[in-house]
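Severity: low
Component: inverse-folding endpoint
Summary: output formatting inconsistent between runs
Steps to reproduce: submit the following structure tokens with default settings.
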């Protein structure tokens, strides 16, 4: 079990199903609409879109952990504090995103017209859910591939999030990169001032 590559299979299946859904959204017959729901019926759409946007930011916060977790031995006390904060926030934000998207998705699946976004959204949710399951298993099952699959699915999810959510996902990804840059700058300055003091 420790080295079994079989753990890749569910991740590959979910990723392929996700791409099939995106393919269907772009090229398939996906505009049939839901009976009984008029095109103008927008209801509480804005509220449920906002839940989706909050989920996008939660996943970005969770993804930011990727570079922060390597800084446990940082020379900067601030970065060390961030490591502790992100250690907990990473999981919390991930689970929060799953709950928020379940509510967001359920609304658009049952209360709105079926459109392209519906299929790309299902693909995103399937990836989010499965990467969450792999993440949950990392500390519970001994298999060296789980962490890598969790990371790969998170990266594929980021691409699908851009396809589905557009601008808000792009801004969230750019903000994550800027955040990583700031952490790097803080560390560099602390390391330089320590060197100067020692010289
Ligand atoms: C079962 C899963 C999902 C379904 C059925 C679904 C459905 C939809 C639909 C139909 C829209 C378009 C609303 C409109 O413009 O009229 C939408 C928007 C949105 N979704 Fe999802 N979605 C799902 C999962 C996700 C996931 C995983 C994310 C996070 C990446 C997400 C984030 C968003 C955001 C931020 C918007 C608003 C985009 C904008 O303001 O233009 N959704 N969703």
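Observed output (run 2 of 3):
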């Amino acid at each position: 079990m420790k080295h079994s590559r079989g753990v890749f299979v569910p991740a590959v299946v979910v990723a392929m199903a996700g791409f099939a859904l995106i393919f269907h959204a772009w090229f398939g017959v996906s505009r049939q609409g839901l009976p009984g729901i008029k095109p103008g019926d927008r209801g509480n759409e804005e509220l449920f879109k906002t839940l989706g946007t909050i989920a996008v930011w939660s996943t970005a916060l969770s993804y930011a952990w990727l570079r922060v977790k390597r800084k446990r031995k940082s020379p900067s006390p601030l970065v060390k504090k961030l490591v502790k904060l992100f250690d907990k926030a990473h999981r919390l934000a991930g689970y929060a995103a799953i709950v928020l998207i379940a509510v967001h998705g359920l609304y658009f699946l049952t209360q709105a017209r079926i459109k392209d976004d519906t299929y790309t959204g299902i693909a995103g949710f399937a990836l989010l859910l499965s990467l969450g399951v792999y993440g949950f298993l990392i500390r519970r099952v001994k298999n060296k591939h789980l962490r890598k699959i969790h990371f790969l699915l998170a990266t594929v999810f980021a691409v699908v999030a851009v396809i589905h959510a557009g601008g808000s996902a792009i801004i969230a990804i750019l903000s994550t990169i800027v955040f990583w840059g700031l952490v790097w700058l803080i560390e560099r300055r602390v390391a330089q001032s320590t060197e100067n003091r020692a010289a």
